[in-house]
Known about the structure:
The chain is of the alpha/beta class. Helices cover 32% and strands 21% of the residues. It has 6 helices and 7 strands, in the order βαββααβαβααββ.
Amino acid sequence: MSKLSFGQIFMNLASDLAKRSHCVKAQVGAVLTKDTRIISVGYNGPPAGTHNCDEEWPENGCPRDARGSCSLALHAEENAILYAVKNGAKLEGATMYTTLSPCLPCARLIFSAGISTVYYRYSYAEYKGLPSDEGVDFLNRFGVKATKFEEQPDQVIF
């Protein structure tokens, strides 16, 4: 019998969550886990109850900030962390699976929350045309293991 690893399941869930995003520019999903259990999930978008970019600005998305990023939305990592904290989850030692490597501000939040490991599917630097993944560099420099997720074929588990 062939089964997916928990890592593959969590990364697949992050990818599925990304499809919930109302962002016109990029859809990102994140899953926070601990000991093979899901603590929290998130995807990028404006705070609940405010607006949906794809409905208000369907052509170009919401207004951009000075760095060309969305000025109104929370990132998937932020949403996952905020929801976990709001519900009293302990994040110390947690693992995050995200479809896009964390930007530097999200990396600082991940570090401060006590998350110990981050797996990402795609590079934020490549997406934004930057020379390096500043968020990944920051996390690795300060002891959070941040690595690109290695897709694995289905494994046989007995």
